[in-house]
Specification:
The complex is a heterotrimer of chains A (83), B (119) and C (223).
Chain A (H helix, E strand, L loop, with lengths): L1 H19 L3 H21 L3 H25 L11
Helix pairs in contact in A: 1-2, 2-3
Chain B lengths: L1 H25 L3 H22 L24 H31 L13
Helix pairs in contact in B: 1-2, 2-3
Chain C lengths: L1 H20 L12 H12 L4 H9 L1 H21 L15 H23 L8 H18 L7 H25 L22 H24 L1
Helix pairs in contact in C: 2-3, 3-4, 4-8, 5-6, 6-8, 7-8
Classes of the chains: A mainly alpha (83), B mainly alpha (119), C mainly alpha (223).
Chain lengths: 83, 119, 223
């Protein structure tokens, strides 16, 4: 039970961190980690089919297509001041 | 403390939806907005599976011939979420294709500066 | 300014949602339709995995709609990114570890994907999970081996054939019986490989189609 509370706290902290980072590549990798922890929570809720699908699609393929899209556009930062 | 033990899954799912909605509404870069859409999808799928959970239940698979069918979790939300996960990855691919096309035309990804619609 | 206003609005919305959803009890048995599915699913279908029999037999028409949406997404992506290709001299060759590892690992990843969708009605798994693993294998092949690449025409032909065979099996059920996607093959013994009627055949076509589709999306984004 303590284990599940720790996992949920790490997931929420990871989502907030992915919102704050300015380097787009780091934000995308942390989003992949959030998807992986969601797959572990699916297993604790007695749903093995859904856990396998989320781990294969959310953690691997989504991160891969984000990295390809960042390679073709601007990588680095987004600190453009709004006026 | 008892409140925390009973509702920890709900806090996780709704926290993800909250953070995803905030990123989609108040960020300037287009790729951050698309990452926010991905978080909303994960949060909603988690919420659907939580509704179908039964205390002290097992997975709905008859692996041994003598399992009790009265102590299994709900299989219908799992079938819905299985379809939803695959559709979401196709939608994210389409959104990123549109983002690449926008970058080639406007040379920037700041949504405050892309104002091509003039009435 | 925009950040503060959106934060306050979201807090108001979520407090309202909490008061609306606080009546749902957590962990109680609320099934009404699923009681029939769990009690009679093994007798009517023969498949040991109840989620498989719900996806393909009780709710088979929704799976047909989902396949259509995947197809539309892949075609739309091909139409948006038409005519943009990188030059050949921009691509750097891979390192030695990646080249050697790719040659060893690619057949085993394909074997794992095919194993998962053939045994979809006995163990947790199925067509969508196996298709995603096959797409990961194709991603590794594209990144590592630069000499032997799987051609793109073959992948398109496999995707189209998979969707067409799914519809043909459904129409055979319409001609031989009462309704579309009728289970017309005999149900074998429980927990053996050949059991469950047409469920293994449908999952084989779905697995090949989804794998080829996701590989096509990755190829199109990489060029």
């Amino acid at each position: 039970m303590i284990f599940i509370i720790l996992l949920v706290i790490i997931m929420l902290v990871g989502a907030i961190v992915s919102c704050i980072f300015e380097d787009l590549l780091s934000a995308v990798i942390v989003a992949g980690i959030v998807s992986l922890i969601a797959a572990i929570l699916f297993y604790f809720l007695q749903a093995p089919d859904v856990a396998m699908a989320e781990a294969a699609i959310g953690a691997a393929l989504t991160t891969a297509i984000f990295v390809f899209a960042i390679k073709k556009t601007k990588r680095q930062e987004e600190n453009e001041k709004d006026n | 403390m008892n409140f925390l033990y009973q509702n920890i899954y709900y806090i996780g799912a709704f926290g993800l939806i909250f953070i995803g909605l905030y990123m989609a509404a108040a960020k300037k870069n287009l790729i951050k907005i698309i990452i926010g859409l991905g978080f909303i999808d994960t949060g909603i799928n988690l919420f659907l599976i939580i509704i179908g959970y039964v205390q002290k239940g097992t997975a709905p698979i008859f692996s041994k011939p003598g399992l009790n069918p009265a102590q299994m979790v709900d299989p219908v939300p799992q079938a819905l979420v299985l379809t939803a996960i695959v559709i979401n990855v196709a939608i994210l691919g389409l959104a990123l294709g549109l983002a690449i096309r926008l970058y080639r035309h406007y040379k920037t990804l700041n949504v405050r500066k892309i104002r091509g619609l003039k009435w | 300014m925009r950040k503060i206003i959106s934060f306050i609005l979201l807090i108001v919305i979520f407090v309202g949602i909490y008061f609306a959803l606080a009546q749902i009890p957590y962990g109680k048995n609320k099934m009404n339709v699923s009681k029939h599915y769990i009690s009679n699913g093994l007798k009517e279908n023969g498949a040991a995995n109840i989620v498989t029999s719900v996806v393909l037999n009780y709710r088979g028409f929704d799976t047909l709609g989902e396949i259509t949406i995947l197809f539309i997404g892949a075609v739309g992506l091909g139409m948006i990114l038409f005519g943009f290709e990188t030059k050949k001299k921009d691509i750097k060759p891979a390192s030695l570890i990646l080249k050697t590892g790719c040659k060893f690992l690619f057949p085993f990843i394909l074997l794992l994907g095919i194993y998962i969708f053939i045994h979809g009605h006995l163990t947790p798994g199925g067509g969508f999970q196996g298709g995603a693993i096959i797409a990961s294998g194709f991603l590794l092949n594209y990144l590592g081996c630069s000499k032997k690449r799987i051609s793109e025409k073959g992948i398109n032909i496999i995707e189209s054939l998979g969707g067409a065979i799914f519809i043909v099996i459904g129409l055979l059920g319409l001609f031989l019986g009462d309704y579309f996607l009728l289970n017309f093959l005999p149900k074998g013994a429980v927990n053996t490989l050949i059991s469950g009627g047409i469920i293994p055949l449908l999952y084989i076509t779905i697995g090949l189609k989804v794998g080829a589709e996701l590989s096509g999306i990755i190829y199109k984004l990489m060029e």
